Amino acid sequence: MDSQILLHRDHVPGNRVYIQHLLRRTLVRSVILFSLSLSATNLAHAQLGVKKESFTHDDTLRGSLNPNRDWWDVQRYDITVQPDYEKKTIKGKVTIHCNAIKQGNTMQVDLQSPMIIDSITGTSLKKKGKTVHYSFQKESINATLVSLTETKHTGDLFSLTIYYHGQPREAIRPPWDGGWIWKKDEKGRPWMSVACQGLGASVWYPCKDYQGDEPDNGASLTIIVPDTLTAIGNGRLQSKHNTQSKDLVTYTWEVKDPINNYNIIPYIGKYVNFTDTLQGEKGTLDLSYWVLDYNLSKAKEQFKQAKLMLRAFEYWFGPYPFYEDGYKLVESPHLGMEHQSAVAYGNKYENGYLGRDLSGSGWGLKWDFIIVHESGHEWFANNITTKDIADMWVHEGFTNYSETLFTEYYYGIEAGNDYCYGTRKNIQNDKPIIGPYGVNKEGSSDMYYKGGNMLHTIRHSIHNDSLFRQILRGLNTTFYHQTVTTQQIENYISQKSGFDYSNVFDQYLRTTQIPVLEFHIDSLHQSVQFKWSNCVKGFNLPLYLGNNNNNLLIHPSEALQTISVTNAAMQLFKKEMIDRMYYVQVREY
Asked: Residues 345, 329: contact at Cβ < 8 Å?
């Protein structure tokens, strides 16, 4: 989600498909990715003297590919769940449809303790679809190894159905901690949902809980609830019918597009619905809003902002990525999360972040933070998703900056600059933004504010807003419905901007150092000296300095440079001007 925020976890701190899956899952690709990841981690440790964290075998099983994960690719999930509100338990089944991309016969399936797998069945390819029972055993507290009765070969399509039950971990402070949410609404009626970004979807259903493998052909979610309640899931409602027990009703929802595991979420409560449409870049986009019955009038007013958000983000980022599944806001028993095509909303129908402006600029009170931020994740997190959460700045940095772009779209460029600059006070610089790879571990929560300010810095360095917008839209086209690495995103920006920003990314993503621009003005000789300090080797961020009448492009480096300037150009070397556009420190000597 993100909560991008100070307490945070969407992660809001909460909080984003494939193409050519077969190639991406090969062992060679995995080895290359691991090598790149290890190099980036070692770079951060070397520069900062950071003590390496210790991780367990279970962390590795959860956060990386291995021989029991890399040979099969998820094609689709069909999930059925029935919660018992009084006992705080659930039971259900999940059918995982798979494609073998190389030979294998043992699968790692993830389901977190204390949830229990009851049985696993499949169909035999050799015996004309005969149902077979698979044996399974715990590999760790949260991972189970399933032994198939026959070896699968490249190109085989197969499925397994997992029956399970238990009392899932309960979220006490969602979305900052994860798990199943058992609450009551203001009228004392059951209100249930799940928040599990980072913690993982395996907290409540069996899956391949690896962010780099999304189901290519989408997912269905069937929810069985008392007939006094309504159940909402991602995508579009496919059916609603009474079960054999007359006091229960079954809802089935489906998404056609690839989706992150942690985004597949049930919402259960006393909901009512209203709808709208948007004439967007790809045609008619269906808008659907589900809110608690007593909040209907407030929602009809506050949710008008959803169209404003969609218009702004389609301008900056390109078409909403999930026209097939529609756009939904669903009132949630927690602050918010970017659940794909069913965005969780819990901002109490107020502007700002629970009525506060996180930037302190005043502009953050002009719009509803959760509608804007969480929906921004539909482009960055849901459309473009990182394989490893160590690279989650791609989700949170771009979505944090979407707040600035939304503000600018409706209130002007200086309002956007005010907002972005105001968020800078929330940066902690406690540790690098990029975390350790392969162990399901994020880096610093600075992925939000520092990530956004880094993009603001790069944007002004490019000094071509038309090109910057093309880059944002191009990212969402080039990596449409894909999972990516930070290297892919970094390289794309460098390639399309025409400048190698690799050292700039290293500076902001892999260290906590804030680069310092040192300069000295020699009025007598009409010259200026400048250089970068407190930076990684080779740091070379260009600076475009300008006002309404004058402008100057300089290319500082670690070496001291001297240039001749006019009197007017000297006036561009002002700390407050440079500081506003670039996340750097400025020191005049």
From this structure: yes
